[in-house]
Amino acid sequence: MKLINTELLKQRVDDYCTGKADALQDQSLLQRVRMRRRQLGQMTMALDRELARVKIPAGDFHISRKVDGEFTCLVYNEGEVFTINPGGTIRIGAPMHEESKKILDQCGVRYALLGGELYVRRADDRRPRVHDVVRVARAPESSEDVASLCLALFNIYEWNDEQRSGQYADRFNRLVELFGEGDRVHPVETIIGDGSKSVLSQFKKWVDEEGAEGVVARSDTAGVFKIKPRHTIDLAAIGFTEGLDDRSGLLHDVMLAVIRGDGTYHIIGRVGGGFSDDQRASILKQLEELVVDSEYAEVNSDRVAYRMIEPGLVFEISCLDIIANTSRGNTIDKMVLEWNAEKSLWEGVRRLPLCSVISPQFLRIRDDKSANADDVRFAQLTDIVNIPSANVVSEELKLPASSLIKRAVATKELRGAMMVRKLMMWKTNKSEQSRDYPEYVLHLTDYSPNRKDPLKHEVRVSSSEQQVLDYWKQWEKKYFVSGWSTQ
What we know:
It is a single chain. By secondary structure, the chain is α+β, with helices and mostly antiparallel strands. The protein has 3 domains: 6-227, DNA ligase/mRNA capping enzyme (D-amino Acid Aminotransferase, Chain A, domain 1, 2-Layer Sandwich), CATH 3.30.470; 235-397, CATH 2.40.50.140; 403-486, no CATH class. The strands form 5 sheets. Strands 1, 2, 5, 6, 7, 8, 9, 10 and 11 form a 9-stranded mixed β-sheet that branches. Strands 15, 16, 17, 18, 19, 20, 22, 23 and 25 form a 9-stranded mixed β-sheet that branches. It has a 5-stranded mixed β-sheet with strand order 3-14-13-4-12. Helix 2 (49-55) runs antiparallel to helix 7 (195-209).
């Protein structure tokens, strides 16, 4: 049985076609691909050079050049060949697919699921970049673009009816046997080495001298280590929290944002490491003098709300890695804020795709920089990872207005006090643009001044208009009872 319904794919250039997961005849395949990506993330420890020297134990390692591409699985099913990523994007018909088919046809396998990194081979011999994959794989402009797609394989996940386990060396050696002479599909460049000394030796060669993204070291006993240079980023400080208990009077962490091209502030995360206690005390006093109001609220891991500050300070941080997608291939959406200087107020805009920084560490406050789109430029991130909607401007960020569907008010007088119950139902008109909003909302306001808690609210949300109308009938029957006068 064919695994792909090719009628649901879109032809791009020549025989190269792409599509979504709904073209899969077996939806469990996507779940298995996501599981493999999630497992890889869970078992991989990210290190910089100095941590690698300490953390990586002695023992045999498969040391591989890290390819700056997109995690992708190659699927072979009785002569059918395609690739699929955790986001559910399917690709077929490129020269790399034909090359894979020719090799696997000859080895007699019926079904295989192989893990690899999709990348673009650049004509100028510069190292691959994930930005090239995004541009070429999604919307190639020529046959040459499609021919530049390559796959660096690093694991065998499934082979016929078997879930491949056991020694990694056996699986990788099998990849070398099959694809060692491959051109566009080949095993990732790998050597065998012993412990941190060998790993750091390859790091020096591949990263320092040749400009590779990093090194991956795999061991069946010690685990998987990803060694990369630390990234350095300048970010705007927009909020902070104070420590609790014996850490009271000391800075806990700082909320940071990158500034988009239109001047809005996109929250990237927070930094709480890298400060000395003297810095925690002095920076806290500095930030407390800058506190302003905010319509947006967020809490830290201790459930302490951030106190927002007037923008201006720039913090330089370092991080081990920058991740733009979840293990399922989804975007990492974070809040965009706008600074209203006239009101000295932070206003929420909406969530948009951004990224997460791994292991952030404070380095210094940049006294030579200020919070503006040049000094805290968005390109610091897009130069490293692909971020959808990176060029969206504030006018395009504004969401449609909600539309009122039904409204009803009832009152009742008791012991000289007026009680009020109000039902409102509306359509948000925002669910397609943002996952933060449901399609329909039903809201009850119940005010009774004689109660201990005078004001109560109740909310129902739904993606079905009929369901929310059914809720309305139930609440009308429950709350608009005898003795209540409908207005």
